[in-house]
Protein backbone atom coordinates (compact mmCIF):
# COMPACT_ATOMS: atom_id res chain seq x y z
CA UNK A 1 0.00 0.00 0.00
CA UNK A 2 1.31 3.43 -0.97
CA UNK A 3 1.24 5.76 2.03
CA UNK A 4 0.82 9.46 1.13
CA UNK A 5 3.49 11.93 2.19
CA UNK A 6 3.17 13.16 5.78
CA UNK A 7 1.40 16.52 5.69
CA UNK A 8 1.07 19.55 7.97
CA UNK A 9 -2.59 18.61 8.42
CA UNK A 10 -1.59 15.13 9.61
CA UNK A 11 0.97 16.65 11.96
CA UNK A 12 -1.73 18.86 13.50
CA UNK A 13 -4.10 15.87 13.68
CA UNK A 14 -1.53 13.77 15.56
CA UNK A 15 -0.65 16.63 17.92
CA UNK A 16 -4.33 17.00 18.86
CA UNK A 17 -4.89 13.24 19.14
CA UNK A 18 -1.84 12.68 21.36
CA UNK A 19 -2.75 15.60 23.63
CA UNK A 20 -6.14 13.98 24.25
CA UNK A 21 -4.79 10.51 25.14
CA UNK A 22 -3.86 9.49 28.66
CA UNK A 23 -0.13 8.74 29.08
CA UNK A 24 0.56 9.23 25.36
CA UNK A 25 3.81 10.73 24.10
CA UNK A 26 3.76 14.26 22.74
CA UNK A 27 4.32 14.71 19.00
CA UNK A 28 7.94 15.79 19.58
CA UNK A 29 8.52 12.74 21.81
CA UNK A 30 6.97 10.57 19.10
CA UNK A 31 9.40 12.01 16.53
CA UNK A 32 12.38 11.15 18.75
CA UNK A 33 11.01 7.74 19.65
CA UNK A 34 10.31 6.72 16.04
CA UNK A 35 13.73 7.95 14.97
CA UNK A 36 15.30 5.61 17.56
CA UNK A 37 13.05 2.71 16.56
CA UNK A 38 13.82 3.14 12.86
CA UNK A 39 17.58 3.18 13.55
CA UNK A 40 17.37 0.06 15.75
CA UNK A 41 19.17 -3.15 14.72
CA UNK A 42 15.82 -4.90 15.02
CA UNK A 43 12.95 -2.48 14.24
CA UNK A 44 9.63 -2.94 16.00
CA UNK A 45 6.44 -3.75 14.15
CA UNK A 46 3.69 -1.16 14.02
CA UNK A 47 1.66 -2.58 16.94
CA UNK A 48 4.71 -2.58 19.22
CA UNK A 49 5.67 1.03 18.61
CA UNK A 50 2.08 2.30 18.62
CA UNK A 51 1.65 0.76 22.08
CA UNK A 52 4.64 2.78 23.30
CA UNK A 53 3.37 6.00 21.72
CA UNK A 54 -0.25 5.55 22.84
CA UNK A 55 -0.30 3.04 25.74
CA UNK A 56 -3.42 0.89 25.87
CA UNK A 57 -4.57 1.74 22.36
CA UNK A 58 -4.12 -1.84 21.06
CA UNK A 59 -3.94 -0.30 17.59
CA UNK A 60 -7.57 0.79 17.91
CA UNK A 61 -7.87 4.33 16.59
CA UNK A 62 -9.51 6.33 13.87
CA UNK A 63 -8.29 5.33 10.41
CA UNK A 64 -7.13 8.88 9.66
CA UNK A 65 -5.02 8.91 12.82
CA UNK A 66 -3.52 5.51 12.03
CA UNK A 67 -2.66 6.60 8.48
CA UNK A 68 -1.07 9.76 9.89
CA UNK A 69 1.14 7.67 12.22
CA UNK A 70 2.13 5.44 9.31
CA UNK A 71 2.92 8.46 7.13
CA UNK A 72 5.07 9.95 9.91
CA UNK A 73 6.94 6.67 10.33
CA UNK A 74 7.56 6.48 6.58
CA UNK A 75 8.71 10.10 6.41
CA UNK A 76 11.24 9.63 9.22
CA UNK A 77 12.43 6.38 7.65
CA UNK A 78 12.97 8.07 4.29
CA UNK A 79 14.91 10.88 5.94
CA UNK A 80 17.07 8.43 7.91
CA UNK A 81 17.94 6.14 5.00
CA UNK A 82 17.56 8.27 1.87
CA UNK A 83 17.34 12.05 2.01
CA UNK A 84 19.20 12.78 5.28
CA UNK A 85 17.71 13.22 8.73
CA UNK A 86 17.59 16.49 10.63
CA UNK A 87 15.89 17.24 13.92
CA UNK A 88 12.26 18.34 13.55
CA UNK A 89 12.87 21.19 15.99
CA UNK A 90 14.09 24.29 14.17
CA UNK A 91 15.64 27.56 15.29
CA UNK A 92 13.05 30.30 15.81
CA UNK A 93 13.64 34.05 15.69
CA UNK A 94 12.24 36.58 18.12
CA UNK A 95 11.13 40.14 17.36
CA UNK A 96 14.76 41.30 17.50
CA UNK A 97 15.71 38.58 14.98
CA UNK A 98 17.69 36.71 17.62
CA UNK A 99 17.64 32.92 17.20
CA UNK A 100 16.28 30.69 19.94
CA UNK A 101 15.21 27.07 20.40
CA UNK A 102 11.90 25.71 21.65
CA UNK A 103 13.45 24.04 24.69
CA UNK A 104 10.40 21.94 25.50
CA UNK A 105 10.37 20.50 21.99
CA UNK A 106 14.08 19.75 22.21
CA UNK A 107 13.58 18.09 25.60
CA UNK A 108 10.66 16.05 24.31
CA UNK A 109 12.60 14.85 21.25
CA UNK A 110 15.48 13.70 23.47
CA UNK A 111 13.06 11.98 25.87
CA UNK A 112 11.40 10.11 23.01
CA UNK A 113 14.78 9.14 21.58
CA UNK A 114 15.94 7.75 24.93
CA UNK A 115 12.74 5.75 25.31
CA UNK A 116 13.25 4.12 21.92
CA UNK A 117 17.02 3.64 22.01
CA UNK A 118 18.07 2.94 25.61
CA UNK A 119 17.34 -0.80 25.44
CA UNK A 120 19.36 -1.63 22.35
CA UNK A 121 22.13 0.86 23.14
CA UNK A 122 22.63 -0.75 26.58
CA UNK A 123 22.76 -4.19 24.98
CA UNK A 124 25.27 -3.09 22.35
CA UNK A 125 27.50 -1.28 24.86
CA UNK A 126 27.58 -4.40 27.06
CA UNK A 127 28.76 -6.63 24.19
CA UNK A 128 32.22 -8.04 25.12
CA UNK A 129 33.29 -8.13 21.45
CA UNK A 130 32.54 -4.46 20.72
CA UNK A 131 35.61 -2.49 19.62
CA UNK A 132 36.54 0.29 22.06
CA UNK A 133 36.43 3.05 19.42
CA UNK A 134 32.89 2.05 18.40
CA UNK A 135 31.81 1.85 22.04
CA UNK A 136 33.16 5.37 22.60
CA UNK A 137 31.45 6.66 19.44
CA UNK A 138 28.11 5.17 20.52
CA UNK A 139 28.39 6.58 24.06
CA UNK A 140 29.20 10.03 22.65
CA UNK A 141 26.28 9.89 20.22
CA UNK A 142 23.91 8.82 22.99
CA UNK A 143 25.07 11.62 25.29
CA UNK A 144 24.63 14.18 22.53
CA UNK A 145 21.19 13.02 21.40
CA UNK A 146 19.98 12.91 25.01
CA UNK A 147 21.48 16.32 25.93
CA UNK A 148 18.17 18.13 26.31
CA UNK A 149 16.98 15.67 28.95
CA UNK A 150 19.32 17.48 31.35
CA UNK A 151 17.53 19.83 33.72
CA UNK A 152 18.00 23.58 33.48
CA UNK A 153 20.40 23.70 36.44
CA UNK A 154 22.76 21.18 34.79
CA UNK A 155 22.62 23.05 31.48
CA UNK A 156 23.37 26.32 33.30
CA UNK A 157 26.33 24.71 35.07
CA UNK A 158 27.79 23.33 31.81
CA UNK A 159 27.33 26.71 30.12
CA UNK A 160 29.10 28.44 33.01
CA UNK A 161 32.02 25.98 32.87
CA UNK A 162 32.53 26.82 29.19
CA UNK A 163 31.97 30.55 29.49
CA UNK A 164 28.83 30.43 27.37
CA UNK A 165 25.29 31.69 27.77
CA UNK A 166 22.74 28.90 28.16
CA UNK A 167 21.15 29.90 24.86
CA UNK A 168 24.43 29.67 22.96
CA UNK A 169 25.33 26.34 24.57
CA UNK A 170 21.94 24.90 23.59
CA UNK A 171 22.28 26.13 20.02
CA UNK A 172 25.75 24.56 19.77
CA UNK A 173 24.48 21.29 21.23
CA UNK A 174 21.52 21.35 18.84
CA UNK A 175 23.89 21.63 15.88
CA UNK A 176 26.04 18.76 17.20
CA UNK A 177 22.89 16.68 17.77
CA UNK A 178 21.92 17.17 14.14
CA UNK A 179 25.33 15.87 13.05
CA UNK A 180 25.02 12.78 15.26
CA UNK A 181 21.41 12.19 14.18
CA UNK A 182 22.37 12.32 10.49
CA UNK A 183 24.81 9.43 10.92
CA UNK A 184 23.18 7.53 13.77
CA UNK A 185 21.65 4.70 11.70
CA UNK A 186 25.01 3.98 10.05
CA UNK A 187 26.72 4.02 13.44
CA UNK A 188 24.19 1.56 14.88
CA UNK A 189 24.64 -0.75 11.91
CA UNK A 190 28.43 -0.71 12.31
CA UNK A 191 28.21 -1.26 16.08
CA UNK A 192 25.62 -4.05 15.73
CA UNK A 193 27.79 -5.97 13.25
CA UNK A 194 30.98 -5.42 15.25
CA UNK A 195 29.30 -6.46 18.51
CA UNK A 196 28.60 -9.93 17.05
CA UNK A 197 25.18 -9.75 18.74
CA UNK A 198 23.52 -9.13 15.44
CA UNK A 199 23.49 -10.74 12.04
CA UNK A 200 21.18 -10.84 9.03
CA UNK A 201 18.68 -12.95 10.98
CA UNK A 202 18.48 -10.62 13.97
CA UNK A 203 19.86 -10.60 17.47
CA UNK A 204 22.07 -13.56 18.28
TrEMBL record:
User: Which InterPro entries does this UniProt record tie to the protein?
Assistant: YgfB-like, YgfB-like_sf
Membrane-spanning regions, if any?
A: none
One Pfam family, short name please? Answer: UPF0149
Give the matching SUPFAM superfamilies.
YgfB-like
Q: Which NCBIfam families match?
A: ygfB_yecA
Q: What is this protein called?
A: YecA family protein
- Give the species: Pseudoalteromonas lipolytica
